Structure formats: C-alpha cells, structure tokens
C-alpha cells in the first residue's frame, strides 16, 4: 500500500493497481468536521491512453485537494473520465494517447456532439488550472479547446434552465395543499411534512438539509424560531453555518420532528450526544433496532452519507408517492431555489438581494432571475429603452415592496384585523385602482398585491388556519371551503417566506 499526505488529506493506492486510488479528507463546518473518502479508478482508460498520461491525470486531481472540495474533485473526475472513455470508443487514434495535443482537440471538436457541455468545459478547466501540466502539449491555448456554441449565450441558457424547472406560485400552493391533506389523513409522516415546509422556507440544497442536527433548531425566550444550516456550494473550503429566521408554523413542525427523532433514535447514541442527531436522519435499522443499517449513519449520528442519498429519501420520495408524473412537480434543491429566485425577482428584489438570500457564490444566476421578471413585467419596452431600464432595474423593481410608513391611498390599502390584539394593520397595497371586497385573504394569490415588508402577515395566516379548522369540523359538505381556506393559507405562507428572506438579507446588508 502506498500513500501520500497533503495537509489533512490522505491519498492511498495499492502498488499493483496505482490507477485505483482514494482520497480521504475532512469535510463540513469547523465545529463538526467529519471524515469523507472518495474513490477513483482510471484502469479502464488504459485501452486508449498511455500509462504516463494516466499517471499525470492522477497527479493533477491529487494536487486539486489544495483548492477544491472532495465533492468538486469527484464531480470533475466523473466528467473527465466519461469524456476520455467516449474518445476511446470513437477509435480515432491508432496508438494510445500520451498527451492532449492539437490533433486530439481537433478530433474532439469534430465529435463534440457526442459530449455534453459540462464535459467539454471541465476539460478546458483542467487546462486553465495548469497549462504547464504534462497532460497537454506545449503551445496550446484555452481557445483551442472546443465548447458547445449556443446563440442564446450563457445568460440565455441560464434563463432557459430556470424556466424549465421553476414553479409558479400556484404550483407551490398546490404542493403544500397536497401535503397538508396527506398529513391530515395520515398518509404523510411528520419527517416529510416538516421537510416540505422547511424546504419552502429556506430553499437550501439537499447537502445542507442532511447536515442539520436537532440542536440546530433554536427557540428564543420570545418564542421566535431560528434554524442553523450548513452552507453548501458557496466557494468556501470550510463551509459556514447560516442562521435563518423561520415563522412559527414551520418552527412548530420542526419541533415535532425533533421530538420524533429523539424518541425514535435517541437510544442509538450516548445521552450526551443526543443533541448531535440528524434532524432528518437515515431511517433503516438492523434487525432488533440496535443500530442503523448504514455505517456512515452510525458514525455520524444518523446523517445520510451524501446530498443525493438525502434527496432520494426526501424530495424524490415525496414526489413519487404524492404527485403524478404529468403534474410536472419537482421538489429538488435546484427547482426550489429557482422557484424562490423568480418569486423574489417578481416581488421586486434586486439581483444583489437575491444572491444574498439564496447564498449564491456569484451574481450570475441572480441576474437571470431579474431578467425573467423584467421581461415578464415589462414586455412592451422597446429595444432602445431596455438598456437604460436594465441599468436602473433593481431600483425600479424594489417599488414592488412597500412599507407601512409609505403614503398608500386609502382605497388601495389592504387592511388586516388582529382579533387577538384588536389592532387594524396595513399589510399591503393593491396594485389595481381599488382593493376588492375579499381582501386581504385573496390578495396573496394575486400578482397585483404589493405586500408591506414591515407588517405582521401572520395575522392573516392565523385567520386562514382557523378557517381551515372550522370548515373541516363541519364535515364533507364543506370540503370545498376547506380547500379554499387551505389554498389561501399556503399562498400567505409563500409570500411570508419571500418577505422574510428579503428582509433578512436587507438587514444583513445594513450591518
């Protein structure tokens, strides 16, 4: 056995199979670093590539541990290995390839329809990271590497990708309606139900959700709920924790889930370690229930081993069980984040605010959300005017949020009455000429509604929830009223989450 140590990372391989190697390092935030191992095997590339080339390829990825996370290295290896295997199968070279040269790149360019854009881009990234590597012939430049050309451009592709998966506000309300009914009827358990509401509150990635511990849910003495979540894919070598404020409804559901986890899996860990249990743990236990079936879960307090594994047991499982394929419903991280990005943009958030709210490493995707909102709300602008409007777009769009201190005409004010305190509060502005008689309960589903950032929208959420309970207690003849009240409740919930994300981001920017 041979090994190489780079900082806190260990690379190992058997002497008789040097192209099969593993990289073991620590991942996670500072206070909860855990060991992770990723394995690679370039042996099958010997059919088309020389031994010295494969050794150089191995060396390149080993050196990457100084600047990339293990997950990123794993992704890069899979893309490069897939590209090289496809090149081998094309049988365009009589001798094993010893170096990537102009001939190789010309052949790759001629056959690029057989490769996806990510594979081509990853190969180019390997070159730009180390142009002097023995993997490449001297004299090559980044422009020599073929990529897929698209007249839409990168921004256009981003917009298309977002529109392909982002959910409308009505779709989100439908998802919550279905989950509400499933939970009430005993078809959905608390772990899936609480996850759905958390997912539509913070819009994190599966790899972040899987790392939440039971003590990451915090309740202040004033009854306010917060959840600490490990950041994922933010460009940080050691991920930080982000604290999100969540509304009472979500906090209560997560508290129930926490109690369920402690009662169900608390016996699997030492009493002093119960607080480290995963809030959404791996479920399968060995016969007798004395430990988890997964060795990773046993070593990490019930945590799933990866983001994809978590996604399989939560968003994918929920979709498969409760939604039909033809509904176009998806609960994965990318879909949820694109959904909230477009909702924030439509509500008036600037690209900077959206980037901060969704914790994007760069503003590129956030700009695409704003573009979508821009073209959706201002389709009639001429091409000559558009550049000027795009330059000042964030300021224009922020007019779609109002404050209670703003001068809102009386006929356009959306008033909400708090029966607990007896207070009449302005919760928004009607974008039409006059507020309709069904305000405020129908406002949250209306695209013309301009909510107040500083209003207590939980007033209307409580009213809607009470309406659901009252109509449900009356039996089946009132089911249509139950559905109407449930739909109103979930639209309020969606708008409240968008406001909370926007408000927290703006407060953070001012500090």
Give a nutshell description of this structure:
The protein is of the alpha+beta class. The protein has helices at residues 51-63, 70-90, 102-110, 117-129, 153-165, 169-184, 190-202, 206-209, 248-265, 295-299, 307-313, 315-322, 333-347, 351-358, 364-377, 386-391, 393-397, 458-473, 479-510; strands spanning 2-6, 9-14, 17-27, 34-41, 217-219, 225-230, 241-246, 413-418, 423-430, 449-451. The chain has a four-stranded antiparallel beta sheet with strand order 1-2-3-4, with helices on one face. It has a three-stranded antiparallel beta sheet with strand order 5-6-7. The chain has a three-stranded antiparallel beta sheet with strand order 8-9-10, with no helix packed on it.
According to DSSP, the number of beta strands is 10
| Helix content range | 40-55%
Unreliable stretches covering 5 or more consecutive residues: 377-399
Overall geometry comes to globular
**Secondary-structure element order, N to C:** EEEEHHHHHHHHEEEHHHHHHHHHEEEHH
User: What is the CA–CA distance across the termini?
Assistant: 53 Å
The biggest beta sheet reads: 4 strands, antiparallel
Helix/strand-derived class? alpha+beta
Give the amount of beta strand, in percent. Answer: 5-15%
Strand neighbour order, sheet with most strands? 1-2-3-4
């Amino acid at each position: 056995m041979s090994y190489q140590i780079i900082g806190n990372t260990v690379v190992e391989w058997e002497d008789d199979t040097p192209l099969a190697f593993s990289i073991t390092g620590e991942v996670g935030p500072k206070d909860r670093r855990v060991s992770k191992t990723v394995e690679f095997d370039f042996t099958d590339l010997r059919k088309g590539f020389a031994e010295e080339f494969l050794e150089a390829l191995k060396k390149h990825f080993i050196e990457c541990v100084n600047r990339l996370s293990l997950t990123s290295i794993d992704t890069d290896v899979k893309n490069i290995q897939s590209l090289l295997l496809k090149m081998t199968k094309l049988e365009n070279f009589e001798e094993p390839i010893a170096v990537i040269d102009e001939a190789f790149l010309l052949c790759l360019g001629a056959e690029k329809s057989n490769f996806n854009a990510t594979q081509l881009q990853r190969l180019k990234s390997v070159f730009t990271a180390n142009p002097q590597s023995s993997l490449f012939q001297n004299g090559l430049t980044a422009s020599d590497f073929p990529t897929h050309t698209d007249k839409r451009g990168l921004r256009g592709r981003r917009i298309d990708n977002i529109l392909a998966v982002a959910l409308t506000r009505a779709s989100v309300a439908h998802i919550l309606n279905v989950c509400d009914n499933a939970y009430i009827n005993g078809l959905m358990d608390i772990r899936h139900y609480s996850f759905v509401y958390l997912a539509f509150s913070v819009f994190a990635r599966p790899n972040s959700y899987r790392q939440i511990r039971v003590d990451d849910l915090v309740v202040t003495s004033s009854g306010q709920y917060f959840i600490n979540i490990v950041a994922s894919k933010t460009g940080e070598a050691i991920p930080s924790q982000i604290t999100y404020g969540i509304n009472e409804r979500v906090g209560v559901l997560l508290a129930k889930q926490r109690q369920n986890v402690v009662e169900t899996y608390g016996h699997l860990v030492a009493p002093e370690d119960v607080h480290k249990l995963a809030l959404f743990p791996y479920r399968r236990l060995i016969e007798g229930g004395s430990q988890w079936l997964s060795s990773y879960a046993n070593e990490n307090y019930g945590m799933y081993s990866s983001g994809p594994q978590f996604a399989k047991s939560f968003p994918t499982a929920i979709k498969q069980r409760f939604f039909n394929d033809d509904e176009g419903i998806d609960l994965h991280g990318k879909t949820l984040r694109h959904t909230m990005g477009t909702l924030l943009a439509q509500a008036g958030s600037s690209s900077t605010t959206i980037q901060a709210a969704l914790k994007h490493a760069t503003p590129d995707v956030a700009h695409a959300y704003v573009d979508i909102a821009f073209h959706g709300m201002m389709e009639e602008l001429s091409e000559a005017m558009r550049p000027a409007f795009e330059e000042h777009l964030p300021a224009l769009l922020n007019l779609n949020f109002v404050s209670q201190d703003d001068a809102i005409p009386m006929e356009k004010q959306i008033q909400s009455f708090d029966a607990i305190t007896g207070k009449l509060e302005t919760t928004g502005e009607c974008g039409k000429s006059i507020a309709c008689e069904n305000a405020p309960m129908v406002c949250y589903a209306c695209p013309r509604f301009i909510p107040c950032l500083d209003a207590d929208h939980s007033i209307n959420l409580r009213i809607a929830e009470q309406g659901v309970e009252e109509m449900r207690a009356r039996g089946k003849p009132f089911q249509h009223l139950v559905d109407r009240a449930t739909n109103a409740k979930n639209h309020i919930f969606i708008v409240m989450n968008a406001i909370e994300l926007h408000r927290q981001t703006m407060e953070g920017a001012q500090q």
